[in-house]
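Researcher: Good morning. I'm working through a list of sequences from a screen, and I'd like to move beyond sequence-only analysis. For each chain I'm collecting a predicted structure so we can compare shapes side by side. This is the next one on the list. No need for commentary yet; just the structure.
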Amino acid sequence: METQKSYKFSEINYKKLKEIADFKLVKDRTIFNEWFDFKFEINKSDKDYLTKLIK
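Model: Good morning. Structure tokens for this chain:
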């Protein structure tokens, strides 16, 4: 039975992250277009709430 290793966020560095995950270079950035082109509007009540949190 394989045990899962856990990490604290403060322990993670780039070297450990590369060991944990298999990252591949993204050459075609068009896959991000939907994310970056998304138009989100904050309604007044959310805006008021966020402003209150900032203050």
